[in-house]
Amino acid sequence: MSKQKSHSGAKKRFRKTGTGKIVRQKAGVRHLLEHKSRKKKLAKRGRTQVASADAARIEKMLSA
Fold it and tell me: Please, which of 24, 50, 56, 64 could form a disulfide with 4 given CB 3.0 to 4.6 Å?
């Protein structure tokens, strides 16, 4: 039986912190930036923690 592979899309989107939390980029900063306010664009910077309801599923995708 072959080895189980980790989800390549999840590898690109999510990251595990040193304390074991899963973080992701915030959505909505890729295009159509002209009509978004500076405040909104600044708030979308950086990373945010994944919801606990989704964390277990994402963890499974990352580790295989």
Answer: 64
pLDDT at 63: 86
> What is the token pair recorded at 36?
């978004």
CATH no., domain 8-62:
4.10.410.60
Is the pTM of the predicted complex or chain greater than 0.90?
no
Cβ pair 48, 23 in contact under 8 A:
yes
Type of residue at 61: M
| Class of residue 62 by CB neighbours under 10 A (exposed 0-12, middle 13-18, buried 19+) | middle
Distance separating alpha carbons of residues 18 and 15, to the nearest angstrom: 10
- Tokens representing residue 19 in the block: 């304390």
